[in-house]
Amino acid sequence: MNNAIERAQIWLGSEYDENTRKEVQNLIDTNPTGLEDAFYRNLEFGTGGMRGIMGIGTNRINKYTLGAATQGLANYLKNEFPNKEKSVAIAYDVRHNSELFARIVSDILTGNDIKVHLFESFRPTPELSFAVRHLGCDAGIVLTASHNPPEYNGYKVYWNDGGQIVPPQDTGIISEVMNVKPTEIQFNGNDELLNIIGKEIDDEFIDACVKNASFTDKGKSALSIVFTSIHGTSIATMPEALKRAGFTNVHIVEEQATPSGDFPTVKSPNPEEPEALKMALELAEKVNADIVIGTDPDADRLGIAVRDFDGKMVLLNGNQTNTVLTNYLLNKWSEDGLEGTEFIGSTIVTSDIFFDLAKLYNVECKVGLTGFKWIADMIRKAEGKQKFIGGGEESFGFMVGDFVRDKDSISSTLLACEIAAFAKANDSSFYEELINIYTKTDCYQEGLVSVVKTGKDGAEQIAQMMVDFRNDPPKTFDNSKVIRLDDYQTSVSKDLISGSETPIEIPKSNVLIFYTKDGSKIAARPSGTEPKIKFYFSVKSNLDEIQDYENVKNELLEKIERLKNEF
What we know:
Protein name: Phosphoglucomutase
Largest sheet: 8 strands, antiparallel
Keywords: Coiled coil, Isomerase, Magnesium, Metal-binding, Phosphoprotein
Number of domains: 4
CATH topology of the largest domain: Alpha-D-Glucose-1,6-Bisphosphate, Chain A, domain 3
Domain Alpha-D-phosphohexomutase alpha/beta/alpha: 44-179, 203-305, 317-435
Coiled coil: 539-566
Cofactor: Mg(2+)
Low-confidence stretches: none
Structural class: alpha/beta
Number of helices: 17
């Protein structure tokens, strides 16, 4: 507590505005628990940038934490590019204070003699990634907290390739941020260096999405689509993108089309949650839709529901959606002729089915840490040597080509709808395409458990869980022996049968992955942006015939439930 009080007392200084000083003093006087949570640490860059609850304090999103981050970024850009005119693109989502924060960040950059291209209103995060490269910027910033609850906001930084920052940029920027004093933050902007952008970038972005995600027009007019933006940013571009791609039978969930930081019609604006797509599914039954698409507030992730063999709408998980999208891309690239330099991208907690797909088409599957910044890093390192086809991760994100260097629900939606349209025109379906793939690889099923632990105590409990797993790792899961343990913190993959150890050649991360004799994969990973620890389960079995799918699926899902119960 003393450390928190000492941090808080700094915020009573004259360099902080009067309202901030009053709120800090009130916390000190009346709310020791709130004071502790607001000041016990500094917000840090995680897999998705800096994200937290809005309010005063070092552990909150506010003008001073954002100010220090932006001043640190400005200092880093000055050091990296000392002899050129520097520029940064800025976008923001529909959340409370996002526009205000974007203006504050913009002023700080222009106050540091850095040109800013600021979107006129809310825009999808992938459009920010696109704009960075399209405008030749040195960096980009988006103010968003993705699918977090309304009280959250966040700040993601992109480098000049359009991908989120990775080493050495991230550590370099953080070092600068740590050295920023409040008095050094240039809050007074220079409007002469501010350029407001909008429709002209929208048009270029949408055209690029259509170009990269379109291979055929077959069946598009016959496909019935239900789309919901869940009160988020995709409403700014998705309807027009679908129209330009040739989809004319589109039904928008109007109750959720109004942008709102309160997300009033859902408990959580997260397309991973079935409840978030409830209204879309109800509309789908009314209009007899073939596919339902829902995007999260900053429009980088998408949830999909399609009709199964009985005509019932079923929600697909991120691995399943990405399996169909990846296979379709691989097939189309294969039709044009693969050169042998192509690759797809995945992450360590994503299903291993992507290795199977890569093997089927004789391409490489590169794997990185969780977060699309690592897939963008793969692309950057491979430029001029290899060609990126597409890639994704289990958390409902996918990237079509490399024109956007982050997960992108806009182009992914266009691709998913094309697949559904093409399949329907050929007496198949999106769902049947997935099961067909399982007959060529193995049949995979996945599960996820998220354990939320808030505040300082929660963070300590999560840290202790990982310590316990390392000190006393499980010997079996569901009566199947653990044969391999990958520890991404020590960068060692250990064969538990032979005892041999192999170095892991990707950056360190606090992740443990267990592999069992029967092919199961269990991962434990504390979130980099939320107060939770996630456990990922992936199991598989052989599938000879499509008609056997339901039985095999149910057996695998029962196995996942047994694995969950062990935790």
